[in-house]
């Protein structure tokens, strides 16, 4: 049997990204933190942490961390149901959400639970591919991802497609596309994208026979700053159509082309009997049906 305090300590180290942070969070000494982890490793029969900065879980540690998060979720849920205040009295759900879903629609899910005093959300943002990796490593209990592949021990629900369109500022359009959008124009028009995992602009220009590696590209790892970058005429980008539907953005940005690209989104969570996760899942599906394009 794994020890409750040792698993709690592992979670605190991963979330706080250091042994010292875990010690402060648990109100124990750093030495006690190390002793608990050593004891946990003896029980598991393998190392659970790589002592780096920040500490990282090993393959065995990922399995223990995932189990620990699920166990504490169910334990705290039961405590609240029984009105037992042995624990903090709060359920914190760690969910990985890609940046664009968070900007466009996931906050509507969170707002559905604003009248639940004991429930809080710990949102981890990433791109649509690596959100599933956060689920695999045990950092989160659920994830919005573009990867429909089933993870062992998890269930996957299809949510719909998020539509993306190419946009730029009025001045940028006049400077680069006044004669129309073609291969030559796209090769000389700078691109602004979130990070190197963002392949939407690459997919768009490929449709015109352009290799994105030949185009000047700015990497702006912030959704709001990326949008400001485009408004200032520094480059063009692909954004969710849900954002351009905002009347303010319609007056500031030009839709460069009627050609849309789509990203399919899925809800991934561990198979578990948790009423709270079931409630959140129902709201995720309900909101996605109103915000995402559904397959007919």
CATH class of the domain at 162-262: Alpha Beta
Radius of gyration equals 22 Å
CATH topology of the domain at 162-262: D-Maltodextrin-Binding Protein, domain 2
Distance between the termini: 49 Å
The secondary-structure element order is: HHHEEHEHEHEEHHEHEHEHHEEH
Task: Kindly report the name of the CATH homologous superfamily of the domain at 162-262.
Answer: Periplasmic binding protein-like II
Gross CATH architecture of the domain at 162-262: 3-Layer(aba) Sandwich
- Tell me the major beta sheet: 7 strands, mixed
Mean pLDDT: 86
Total number of helices? 13
Q: Indicate the low-confidence ranges by residue numbers.
A: 84-88
What does the model show?
The chain has 296 residues and is an alpha/beta fold. Among the domains are: 1-72, Winged helix-like DNA-binding domain superfamily/Winged helix DNA-binding domain (Arc Repressor Mutant, subunit A, Orthogonal Bundle); 162-262, Periplasmic binding protein-like II (D-Maltodextrin-Binding Protein, domain 2). It contains 13 helices and eleven strands. It has helices at 4-16, 19-26, 30-44, 59-81, 99-111, 130-136, 170-176, 183-188, 200-206, 223-231, 241-244, 247-252, 275-291, and strands spanning 49-50, 56-57, 91-98, 119-126, 142-145, 154-169, 191-193, 217-219, 237-240, 253-255, 261-270. Strands 3, 4, 5, 6, 9, 10 and 11 form a seven-stranded mixed sheet that branches. A two-stranded antiparallel ribbon has the order 1-2. The longest helix has 23 residues, at 59-81. Mean pLDDT is 86; it is low at 84-88.
């Amino acid at each position: 049997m794994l020890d409750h305090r040792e698993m709690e300590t592992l979670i605190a180290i991963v979330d706080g990204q250091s042994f010292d942070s875990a010690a402060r969070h648990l109100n124990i000494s750093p030495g006690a933190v190390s002793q608990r982890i050593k004891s946990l490793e003896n029980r598991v029969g393998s190392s659970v942490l790589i002592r780096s900065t920040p500490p990282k879980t090993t393959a065995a540690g990922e399995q223990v961390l995932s189990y620990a998060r699920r166990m504490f979720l169910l334990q705290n849920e039961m405590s609240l149901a029984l009105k037992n205040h042995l624990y903090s009295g709060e359920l914190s759900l760690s969910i990985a959400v890609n940046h664009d879903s968070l900007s466009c629609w996931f906050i509507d899910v969170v707002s559905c639970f604003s009248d639940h005093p004991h429930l809080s959300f710990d949102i981890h943002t990433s791109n649509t591919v690596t959100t599933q990796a956060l689920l695999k490593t045990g950092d989160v209990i659920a994830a919005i991802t573009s990867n429909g592949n089933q993870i062992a021990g998890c269930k996957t629900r299809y949510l719909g497609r998020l539509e993306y369109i190419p946009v730029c500022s009025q001045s940028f359009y006049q400077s680069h596309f006044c004669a129309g959008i073609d291969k030559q124009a796209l090769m000389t028009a700078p691109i602004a994208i979130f990070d190197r995992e963002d392949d939407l602009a690459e997919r768009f220009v490929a449709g015109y026979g352009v290799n994105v590696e030949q185009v000047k590209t700015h990497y702006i790892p912030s959704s709001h700053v990326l949008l400001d970058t485009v408004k200032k005429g520094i480059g063009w980008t692909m954004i969710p159509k849900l954002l351009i539907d905002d009347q303010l953005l319609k007056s500031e940005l030009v839709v460069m082309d009627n050609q849309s690209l789509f990203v399919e989104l899925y809800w991934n969570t561990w198979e578990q009997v948790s009423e709270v996760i079931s409630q959140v899942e129902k709201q995720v599906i309900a909101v996605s049906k109103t915000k995402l394009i559904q397959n007919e």
